[in-house]
Structures are given as structure tokens and as C-alpha cells.
Write a structure and sequence with these properties.
With 442 residues, this protein is α+β, with helices and mostly antiparallel strands. The protein has 3 domains: 3-91, OB fold (Dihydrolipoamide Acetyltransferase, E2P), CATH 2.40.50; 156-192, E3-binding domain (Dihydrolipoamide Transferase); 225-441, Chloramphenicol Acetyltransferase. It has helices spanning 110-114, 119-123, 141-145, 154-163, 181-189, 195-201, 225-238, 253-263, 273-287, 331-346, 420-435, and strands at residues 3-6, 16-22, 29-30, 35-40, 45-49, 54-59, 66-68, 72-77, 129-132, 208-211, 243-251, 293-296, 299-302, 308-310, 312-314, 317-319, 322-323, 350-351, 360-364, 383-387, 391-397, 400-414. The strands form 6 sheets. Strands 11, 14, 17, 19, 20, 21 and 22 form a 7-stranded mixed β-sheet that branches. It is extended and about 115 Å long. The two termini are 47 Å apart.
Length: 442
């Protein structure tokens, strides 16, 4: 039996994929589920599995080859199968999509491409400096030495402005030495000093050393595949998807205490605040199926299972691997799998099923001491939850002030799929679960 291995579509925005390496060689025996290749997508490096058994008879696209989604990259078959009708190489260039031109760096000096000016370049003056003296031309010594705001009446200022008279050169005769209109008119009638005398009276002001800066002023960095995908995909979400936002503040005292008790147990996985939020959201999604939904043209698809995408920040961008069936998994299992997903996402070792299929996503910036923010929906999902940091705050309970732990959760919703009341009811259920956290263990 012949099994065609094609370039898989591992994300909604993926159009092409690049073969990084083959984990199996031609002639090796393959079983269904074996990892056979590592593929670079627009978001991450993903190991793909074989969906058939046999022998890896032909590698059509070698390492470094990039082809469109759906194109043949290898063939798994029995030794006796005839492969003469199958292509022997990658598709011709006219079948491959035109690559987007990289940002031109032709106009950037080579030094600018190699390095960026450091703070030392801007902060520490080099050995060579040029001194620019600042000289006041035409001002007497006494006037140049005077400091502070000139006292003058509004009318005197208007006349001086219209006639070009410098108020700093006039001695005021008004109350407290205030310059009045007749003082300005007297200055206009007085003979002007000769230019030579004015030049002689000029007093230089203190000189300042201005450093001569070296090195490039800026650097153009070409978009990485991940950043290019984000730049292309986010406008497709934020622009056409009508976002609205609902924020709730939740008491986390009991959830915090439960987490500390669980983490004190020997031989048990460490539980994070995010693990508690994931479990609470999964249970709340099943109670609020309208939030666990996505927009599909003329229909709204309501999901009956809670597959939650967990946003992971990488140096080159953001990736959202998927933790499946969170509603039926115990809290400890969620903790183990979410940590494993995050580590493999940072190492570029995610597998194809972990790259898509989320019904809801969570983005947590609490570790960066961010108290509150709004996240952008990852289409085709209908909502995403933004989680801030858990902070200690003064709270009032039963007429008394005490210190309590609080967190702000903001849900971003697709208004085509749900309304404000649906998002609010979802947050109410999440609040109840986190404020009564033993429910997360049932």
C-alpha cells in the first residue's frame, strides 16, 4: 500500500513549509505514528508523524526544501509497490508561491547591519569633541548676566514684540522695576549703539562640549518567519473581528493557599496560577458553550470539548500550543502537560497536533508584573482570556480593611459569536471556581 507524505497544514496561516531534516532514511521501515521529519512552519519547528506503515521508499523534498502545503514530500510503501507514476522531485518553480521579498538592506551601511550603537556610544563622550561657544550678540554685560523672567506689563510686551525691542535691555520705571509702555517707547527713541560697540560689549556664555557620535544611527532587521506570520495574521484578526472586552477582579486568597498546599506535597508536580486558571476556564467553557465557539461564515460552531491554547513568548514572537481536553484532565496532569508544551515550544520541538485546534486561548503576562491588559483573538477562536499578575491589595470585608490577593482577568470576545452578557457570565463562573478552588480538584 502506497502512503503519500505531503506537506501538512500546521496552522491557519501556513501556506508553505520547509523540511529541516528527515528523522528516517530511505529504506528504513516505518510504522504508523513514527516521527519521520522535522518541518519549519511560519511559527515553529514541528515533528510530523507517519500515517502509514511500510518502507520509506522515496524522499521527494530533501533538507532545506520548501514547498506549498499539500505537496508531496515523501512516499511510504511496500518494497514491491510501483512508484513510477509518482513525481521524483519537488514541484517546479512555477508551482511554488512567489516568496515575499525581504526588506531591502541595500541602502543600509554594512556597519549598520553588523551592530547597533550601544548605550556607551551615546552616553560616554569619545576622545575628540568639538566645543561650540554660545555668544550673546548685542547684549550689555549687565543684561547678559541677569537671570530670571523679565517683569513687564502686557502692553509693554506687545509694543516691544511689534517693534523688535529686547525687553532684557530696558530698565523699567514702573512699580518694582516693572517695564511699562513708556519705557519701551523711550528705548525706541534712544540712539542705537554702533555695531562695533555692541560686538565689544558681547560677553561669551559658558561653552558646552558636544560629543561627536560614531556608528550607525539605526539598524534594519529582516522579519523572521514567525514575526512575518504574526504581522500578516494579526490584522486579519483585529481589523475584521469586532472585539469587545469584559474585565473582572477576582479574589485569589483561597486559590493561592491551595496552590501552596499542593506544592508542599512531595513527589507531586508544581502547580502554577496559570494551571488553576486553565482548569477553571475549561470547566466554565462547558457551562457556557456560547463562549467555547467560533465564527464560520454562515454558522457559529459550538465546541463540546475544551482545547485551550496557552500563549508562550519566544524571542522571535508568540506561539500558542494547544492543551487538549482540559475539562476532563486533573489539575496535576494539566500542570505537567502545560510545562512540557512550553519547554518544547521554546525548543522548537512541538508536534503537528499540538499546533492547532484550540477552542479558546489564555495569555498570561502576570510573570512580568502586568496587572491588566487586553489580548487579540486568535481566529477562528471566538475568545481569548488575558491574565494579569496576582497582587496584594487593601480590601474591605465586613467593614474591616485587610490585605488580600487579587487578579484581573479580561476576556476579549468576537461580537459576531457572543454578546457582553455571555462573556460576563463566563467570567462569573471562572470567579466562582477560583474563589472556591476545591471545585477544581473534583
Amino acid at each position: 500500500m502506497i502512503t503519500k507524505v505531503v506537506m501538512p497544514k500546521l496552522s491557519e496561516a501556513m501556506e508553505t513549509g520547509k523540511v529541516i531534516q528527515w528523522l528516517k532514511k530511505e529504506g528504513e521501515t516505518i510504522k504508523g505514528g513514527d516521527l519521520i521529519a522535522e518541518i519549519e512552519t511560519d511559527k515553529a519547528n514541528v515533528e510530523i508523524e507517519a500515517f502509514g506503515s511500510g518502507v520509506l521508499r522515496k524522499i521527494v523534498v530533501g533538507p532545506g526544501g520548501q514547498v506549498p502545503v499539500g505537496e508531496l514530500i515523501a512516499v511510504i510503501a511496500d518494497p514491491s509497490d510501483d512508484l513510477s507514476s509518482l513525481p521524483s522531485g519537488p514541484p517546479p518553480p512555477d508551482r511554488q508561491p512567489a516568496a515575499e521579498p525581504a526588506p531591502s538592506l541595500a541602502a543600509v551601511p554594512s556597519a549598520a547591519i553588523r551592530s547597533v550603537p550601544s548605550m556607551e556610544t551615546y552616553g560616554a563622550p569619545p576622545a575628540t569633541t568639538r566645543v561650540v561657544p554660545m555668544v550673546s550678540a548685542g547684549a550689555p554685560a549687565a543684561a547678559a548676566a541677569s537671570v530670571g523672567r523679565v517683569k513687564a506689563s502686557p502692553l509693554a510686551r506687545k509694543v516691544a514684540s511689534q517693534s523688535g525691542v529686547d525687553l532684557r535691555l530696558i530698565q523699567g520705571t514702573g512699580p518694582g522695576g516693572r517695564i511699562i509702555r513708556r519705557d519701551v517707547e523711550a528705548a525706541l527713541a534712544a540712539p542705537r549703539p554702533a555695531p562695533a560697540a555692541a560686538a565689544t560689549a558681547a560677553v561669551p556664555r559658558p561653552a558646552f562640549a558636544i560629543p561627536t557620535r560614531s556608528g550607525p544611527e539605526y539598524e534594519d532587521v529582516a522579519l523572521s518567519p514567525m514575526r512575518a506570520a504574526i504581522a500578516k495574521r494579526m490584522p486579519l484578526s483585529k481589523a475584521p473581528v469586532p472585539h469587545f472586552y469584559v474585565t473582572a477582579e477576582i479574589a485569589m486568597d483561597r486559590a493561592w493557599a491551595l496552590r501552596e498546599d499542593l506544592n508542599a506535597l512531595e513527589g507531586q508536580p508544581k502547580i502554577s496560577i496559570n494551571d488553576l486558571v486553565v482548569k477553571a476556564c475549561a470547566l466554565a467553557l462547558l457551562k457556557n458553550p456560547g463562549v467555547n465557539a467560533s465564527f464560520h461564515g454562515q454558522a457559529i460552531r459550538v465546541h463540546h470539548r475544551a482545547h485551550i491554547g496557552i500563549a508562550v513568548a519566544l524571542e522571535q514572537g508568540l506561539i500558542t500550543p494547544v492543551l487538549r481536553d482540559c475539562d476532563v484532565k486533573p489539575l496535576q496532569q494539566i500542570a505537567i502537560e502545560s510545562r512540557d508544551l512550553a519547554e518544547r515550544a521554546r525548543g522548537g520541538k512541538l508536534r503537528a497536533p499540538e499546533m492547532g485546534g484550540a477552542t479558546f486561548s489564555i495569555s498570561n503576562l502576570g510573570m512580568f508584573e502586568v496587572e491588566e491588559f487586553s489580548a487579540i483573538i486568535n481566529p477562528p477562536e471566538g475568545a481569548i482570556l488575558a491574565v494579569g499578575s496576582v497582587t496584594e491589595q487593601p480590601v474591605v470585608e465586613h467593614g474591616e480593611i485587610r490585605v488580600g490577593r487579587r487578579v484581573k482577568l479580561t476576556i476579549s470576545c468576537d461580537h459576531r459569536v457572543m454578546d457582553g452578557a455571555m462573556g460576563a457570565r463566563f467570567l462569573q463562573d471562572v470567579r466562582r471556581l477560583l474563589q472556591e478552588p476545591l471545585r477544581l480538584l473534583i
